[in-house]
Specification:
The protein is an alpha+beta fold and 276 residues long. Helix content is 22%, strand content 18%. The chain starts with a strand and ends with a strand.
Length: 276
């Protein structure tokens, strides 16, 4: 739809894909309103959007980024006691540090401190030391980017922290297209998100929500008997794929709450309410 305010140029609101989409986009360009909207970072095809917010779109975008980073797969048991730092971090390589910059620029709201970051630069363009990359962790920016580009519009709480959208899903905030589900009850579908706690939050459970936890979430890109295939950002400093074991019912945990995956304690599924 097109909204007008007295004394102001017409502005666009996020609308489903209809025959008016092209006309809305053209009017926005003619009026120049896109240049001063808070979401000016967002490409028109995602802002209008040109197509419904769909599982297929989110999965395709996540897989596209995985291919761009060289199709990394990591199904090894993590060594938390002696993590190995790679000599060359993919996030700092030419062509890829800029890609991480796209996640920050598009995934974050315009004007946020993080929107100017890249895989190797802070908001002022300074190259930060590789060991300091934990301060610029981009896994939530990656999820935000996927959801934004897939057409979630204002239905997703874009953030540099995973807990922001998990808590919004748990609270069932108005207009937020997310719901939290217990890992022993709900079988994740492609396009949903699965999450773990990290560091001091490693022991977090669903019953601890809402909580400002340190964590990581992956996008489910396939659900097959016995395993999920997931893709996440900032895993080994790249966009990386993992395979996650599930029960015969497709859940991450058994009815008594025991998580099937011996490597990671998946504590919540974020069900995404796609239009398709």
């Amino acid at each position: 739809m097109i909204a007008t305010t007295a004394g102001r140029s017409p502005t666009l609101r996020c609308v489903p894909n209809t025959g008016l989409a092209a006309a809305c986009a053209a009017l926005a360009l003619l009026a120049g309103c896109a240049s001063h909207r808070p979401d000016r970072h967002v490409p028109p095809y995602a802002r209008v959007p040109y197509a419904p917010f769909s599982r297929d779109a989110a999965v395709a975008i996540a897989l596209r980024e995985w291919r761009a980073f060289g199709e990394h797969v990591d199904d090894a048991m993590p060594d938390r006691e002696h993590p190995v730092e790679p000599e060359v971090k993919p996030e700092r390589e030419q062509g890829l540090w800029q890609r991480v910059g796209d996640y920050w620029w598009i995934g974050m709201d315009a004007g946020s401190d993080e929107s100017g970051w890249t895989g190797r630069n802070d908001g002022d363009g300074r190259v930060f030391p590789a060991p300091d990359d934990g301060r610029y962790a981009w896994s939530a920016a990656f999820v935000s980017y996927v959801m934004r580009v897939a057409g979630a519009c204002d239905g997703f709480p874009y953030s540099a922290s995973h807990w922001t959208y998990v808590d919004a899903a748990f609270a069932q905030k108005p207009r937020v297209l997310l719901r939290t589900e217990r890992p022993e009850i709900y079988a994740p579908r492609p396009g949903d998100l699965i999450c773990i706690g990290r560091e001091a939050s490693r022991g977090i459970t669903y019953d601890d929500l809402p909580a400002r936890f340190a964590g990581h979430c992956d996008v489910v890109v396939d659900a097959a008997p016995g395993a999920l295939t997931v893709v996440g950002g900032n895993v080994n400093d790249a966009v990386t794929m993992k395979h996650v074991p599930v029960t015969d019912a497709g859940t991450l945990a058994t009815p008594d709450g025991a998580v099937v995956d011996p490597r990671y304690r998946w504590f919540v599924v974020v069900r995404v309410l796609y239009a398709q």
